[in-house]
């Protein structure tokens, strides 16, 4: 069962831990990890699938994490299908028909269809990311990350000691400090190493470590700590995906290199651009943010530049050969094949975007301003429909042409089909 999640693209949810580890943002596609979740004071939407929508009603906190009741809802009718008996902490992840979440006594994997517990590990941590084979979680009571086997929850390796800072980059976490990496996999050769900088990569079984201020980069096999390859003259790591590591050099960050993760081979390089403000990776396209608001779109596999645009904003979607970007006051559509600007529309304070057929849907709100919904034509950017919600509800999520909102007190969830401009259902928080 394909899993899609509800998240505001403007918000990277910080886990309520020490250190704080933000969740990775990913585009609306069939990938593990949270794609779309917006937190409110009293309620939250969790992973959305064809048959299940999860509602999380907060009731308190445990070990510094929000706790509450998790309920599975039928997305078309709002009917409650089941409720998990124990309080759930923090966030949850859904992948291939299995729900992964934390409780006060550990991490759990639950079959969504049968509502049966597949495995439980007595490890107090909050889940941060999933791959096809591993689960990464952040410890609750002490700084550190732990990687577990996704099939049975067996711990594989973790970090400990002092972590001064944690930086989210595409494909992993960058940890800074006095970091001890150690293997905890049963039946394997135990190993441990201490480093000042570590990239915890999600898309393969490799740990990247660096000396102070980078310069020297080392790739370790996570199962046994073996050094796979080393590189010098590395200034920074921008991200990692699909077995490729993206770095800049040490002489001014004006050369972007794509390194094969398995052996460090340089696959391609681009020079002459100041890639200083971050990297987005969406469906095999790299979006590099440089000086003076210059955005460069490149092929993730070949380094070919598709287009460049000067725009003060962020990449929201890459869908049907078009990239959609939003700024403070506008929504911009650029054709990937030749960089042609298809259209630009003035809309302020965009929270999220979703495409269904030939229509683009967006939700907008800012501070005390009311929640608004918009329907636009994807070909022209023309506004087809616009509605301002009364009573200041809070935005929860947007999936295709359905918007989810909650009442100001967080006790009533409403699903609205924007294309038909009608309420699908309302779900009121049970008294017990």
From TrEMBL:
<dbReference type="InterPro" id="IPR011047">
    <property type="entry name" value="Quinoprotein_ADH-like_sf"/>
</dbReference>
<dbReference type="InterPro" id="IPR002372">
    <property type="entry name" value="PQQ_rpt_dom"/>
</dbReference>
<dbReference type="InterPro" id="IPR015943">
    <property type="entry name" value="WD40/YVTN_repeat-like_dom_sf"/>
</dbReference>
<protein>
    <recommendedName>
        <fullName>Pyrrolo-quinoline quinone repeat domain-containing protein</fullName>
    </recommendedName>
</protein>
<feature type="domain" description="Pyrrolo-quinoline quinone repeat">
    <location>
        <begin position="215"/>
        <end position="427"/>
    </location>
</feature>
<dbReference type="Pfam" id="PF13360">
    <property type="entry name" value="PQQ_2"/>
</dbReference>
<dbReference type="InterPro" id="IPR018391">
    <property type="entry name" value="PQQ_b-propeller_rpt"/>
</dbReference>
